[in-house]
Amino acid sequence: STDECTGWTGITCNAEGRVTEVNLAASIQATESNVGPSDSLQLSVDFFLLLAETLQIFNLSQNQLSQSTIPTEVGTLRQLTALSLGENQFVGTIPTQLSDLTMLGHLVLGSNLLDGAVPSLTDLAQLSYLDLRANENLGGDLSLEGMDS
């Protein structure tokens, strides 16, 4: 049942009580006891394993998380249709594992501190919205070959 999900802000579950959406956009407030600006985000491998089969929407945008990298385990979330991690000051490269998210239609990584080359996104045939803006050290060739217009 979805009873387990009631009372959890930003969490949506299906009829079986499995998490289908994590929407914590602009919702992580800075205090002395939790993650906030100048803190990093660390998600355990278990987080991804628990949500791999059911999570469709993952939105952590606008939380100004700093010095965090985008975990490579995000590639295990094969049911994702939307991934929004913009405006978080993520550092490092975009994981190549994003190409495993073949259901992804909406990808927002803009306004971070990402660097390196943009990995191939040609396997993301469902992708209709891509935001990579304001990542000054991001480069390379963005190939959209094989994708629908």
Please characterize this protein's 3D structure.
With 149 residues, the protein is mainly beta. The protein has a single domain, classed as Leucine-rich repeat, LRR (right-handed beta-alpha superhelix). Helices cover 5% and strands 20% of the residues. The protein has one helix and nine strands; from the N terminus they run ββαβββββββ. The longest helix has 7 residues. It is found in: Cell envelope. Pfam families: LRR_1. InterPro entries: Leu-rich_rpt (IPR001611), LRR_dom_sf (IPR032675), PGIP (IPR051848). Its main location: other.
Present the secondary structure layout.
Blueprint: E1 11-13, E2 19-23, H1 45-51, E3 57-59, E4 82-84, E5 91-92, E6 106-108, E7 113-117, E8 129-131, E9 137-139
Parallel strand pairs: 2-3, 3-4, 4-6, 5-7, 6-8, 7-9
Antiparallel strand pairs: 1-2
CATH superfamily: Ribonuclease Inhibitor
From the alpha-carbon coordinates, what is the Rg to the nearest angstrom? 15 Å
Q: Quote the CATH topology.
A: Leucine-rich repeat, LRR (right-handed beta-alpha superhelix)
CATH class value: Alpha Beta
Subcellular location: Cell envelope
Protein name: Leucine-rich repeat-containing N-terminal plant-type domain-containing protein
Keywords: Leucine-rich repeat, Repeat
